[in-house]
Design brief:
By secondary structure, this protein is an alpha/beta fold. The chain is 43% helix and 21% strand. Helix 2 runs parallel beside helix 3 (61-71), helix 4 crosses helix 8 (188-203) and helix 6 (154-166) packs across helix 7.
Amino acid sequence: MKVLIIEDDCRIADTIAMTLKIRWPKAIIIKTNQGLKGIDLVASENPNLIILDLGLPDIDGFDVLKQIKGFAETPVLILSVRADEADVVEGLELGADEYITKPFRQMEFLSRVQCILRRDQYETSNMPLSFGVVSFLPAKKRLIIGDREIALTMTESHMLETFIKNKGCTVGMEELAESIWGADYPGSNEAIHVYIRRLRQKVEANPSNPQIIITIPGVGYSLQTPE
């Protein structure tokens, strides 16, 4: 496993590296305190995971995230002191796989990292899944609705696969959390709401009036298909 840490505080970067080494002693850790250098390292080193701080000296962490997601599918975990809901939502909407605030708890951090890696290494089937006019190609992370082909992230793929396998039945929040992270955790509902909103922006003709991914108040979501 190769992990890229983009963090301006060298003491925190060292703590993160040491924490990762506890669980994965053979992990290769690459560190930089510069956002632009971090972007270059993603391209040259092809890490399995990126730990990203938002308060970088040369460029805002959100801009780093945008650029990384423009050319790489590498999972990104944001680790930041910025705990405002608006920052968490923006990070997840820009494509971060997780958002943890500092100071972080070691066991929670390791658990989140393990979930990201397990999700990213999940072996998908080459067989398409379908429900009504919706088809999903797991291996390619592509959703087909009519004549539209839509690229999905790994998180979105796990959610979509869960919806299709339930074939129109309601999927509860706990089941969605397990499909994404392997287990439910405090705060997962808020993250799921963000992922659903981002997924709707890709698949719905009018995301503010969804016709495909339907909210079941107080329960979860259901996948419907256009006539």
